[in-house]
Amino acid sequence: MTDNIFLFVPNIIDYCRVIFAFMSFYYMPTDHYKAACLYLLSGFLDEFDGRLARLLKQTSKLGALLDQLTDRIITMCMCAVLCHFYPTYILFFQFSMALDIFSHWVYLHSSLMIGKENHKHVDLSENFIVRHYYTNEHVLSVMCLGNEIFYCLLYLRHFTIGPVLGNLSIGLWTLLLFVAAPITIAKMVISGVQMVIACRNIAAIDITEREKEAREERNKYKGE
Fold it and tell me: Catalytic pick from 49, 71, 123, 206?
C-alpha cells in the first residue's frame, strides 16, 4: 500500500504549527498573552517534526519543504506585526525578513543544484559555521527557538514590561530580550554566511557550465 505523505506525523505537526500561528495572529491585537503562548507553541513544535521524521522513518521531500516554508512564513508574519508596533525600527524588520527569505531560498536551491537531498545536508568540507548550525541539533534548536523568543518578547514588550524583578526595576520581558538578542544577531550572521556560500556555489556551477559550453564549441569547430 502506498504511503500517504500528506498524513505523515511530521507533516501533520507542520499543519498544526500553521494553525497555532494564525490563531496567535488573530489574538495579537486583543490578547497579547494568549497570542504569545500560541506563537511560542507553534515554534516549540518545530523541535519535534524533524526528530519524529527520523524516528518514524517518515522523512520526505514534502516534509522538508513544509518545514522550511512554515518557519519562514510564521517569522515573517510576526515581523509584519512588529513593523506596525515599532515603526521606528521598520527597516530592521524589513532587513531581517529579506535576509531570512533570500538566504534560505538561494541556499536551498544551491543545495539541490549540487545534488543534495535538502538544505540541511552539509558536507564537512563546507564553512564550519554553517556546518555546525545544520549538523548540531542543540545549536540549531537554540538558534531557531531563541530567534522566535526574541521576536515574541518584542511583541510582548509593546504591551508590558512584564513582572518587575525585585530591586532591579526592570521587567522580565526586557531582561529576556537582552538575553535573546545576541541569538537573533548570530542567526542573522549565519544567514549572511550561508547566503554567500550559496551564491559562490551557484557561481561555480555557472563557471563550470560555461567552460563546458566553450569546450563543446571548440570541439564543434575542430570537427568541422
Answer: 71
